[in-house]
Write a structure and sequence with these properties.
The structure is a single chain. By secondary structure, this protein is of the alpha+beta class. Helix content is about 25%, strand content about 25%. It is built from 6 helices and 11 strands. A hairpin with a 7-residue loop joins strand 7 and strand 8. The longest helix is centred in the first third of the chain and has 18 residues. It starts with 12 loop residues before the first strand and ends in a 5-residue tail after the last strand. About 30% of the residues are buried.
């Protein structure tokens, strides 16, 4: 057991935990120590990665999740149990009796975790130099309104704008609990009004933009990151960046 909980999370709080998965020289961090936090099934999954950097990414992300959750409840990192909805989104197993919601994302060299109390949350982080084929993705992911905004930008800015839109769409879809099974072209994050996007949704999604708070997350300059949180009416939420334990 971990002793007294060290993090206070109110109903209107949103905690974001961010940690690197590699050291300053790009080497994997304390993998053996982190692997001790994982379940046997997670360690088995980690061993199946062929490349060390992929194994480091997975182990660090799962350890971050478990260590951070242990800041809210008297449960050791290795004792957390999870269950999954029909779309594969994980949640704290109901038999633990803990009212926490979370979402985890990682990209090469960075892990990010969002935690709330009984409130849907989605987070996404992507490396700025991610290898993507824009011609293949633009018409699969972007709505017509987003494509129109993109056409007004210089070509050199297209990838950065695409990644901005992508992290918001991913965060929203994960908060909905359905991931990219949602029709992404029915979701629009539009930047015409300035640096912060405006969410619009097609009626087929059965949802209202006003029921969500969404924002960029401050991360190192070589990453894009966003968070999306469910809210009720004009509810004011407080986003707090937390320092991960022992990272």
């Amino acid at each position: 057991m971990t002793g007294e909980s060290r993090a206070t999370l109110n109903r209107t709080d949103v905690h974001l935990w961010i940690a690197p998965s590699t050291g300053p020289s790009g080497e994997p961090r304390r993998l053996r120590e982190y692997a001790a936090d994982l379940s046997p099934e997670e360690r088995h999954r980690a061993d199946r990665f062929y490349f060390l950097h992929d194994r480091a990414q997975f182990v660090t992300a799962r350890s971050l999740l478990r260590r951070c959750l242990s800041q809210y409840a008297d449960i050791a990192p290795s004792e957390w149990e999870f269950e999954f909805n029909s779309f594969g989104k994980p949640a704290v197993h109901r038999r633990l009796g803990v009212d926490l919601d979370f979402n985890l994302s990682h990209s090469r060299g960075m892990c990010m975790l969002g935690v709330t109390r009984e409130r849907p949350i989605g987070v996404d982080v992507e490396k700025r130099d991610a290898r993507i084929s824009l011609p293949d993705l633009l018409h699969q992911v972007l709505s017509e309104a987003e494509l129109e905004e993109l056409r007004h930008l210089p070509a050199r800015a297209w990838k950065s704008r695409f990644l901005d839109v992508w992290v918001f769409k991913e965060a929203y879809a994960k908060a909905r609990g359905q991931g990219i099974s949602l029709p992404l072209r029915d979701i629009s994050f539009l930047f015409a009004g300035g640096p912060q996007p405006r969410l619009t949704l097609k009626p087929s999604l059965g949802d209202r933009p006003d029921d969500w708070l969404y924002d960029f997350v401050r991360v190192p300059a070589d990453f894009h990151a966003a968070v999306c949180i469910g809210r009720r009416g004009d509810e004011r939420l407080r986003l707090v960046l937390r320092e991960p334990p022992r990272y």
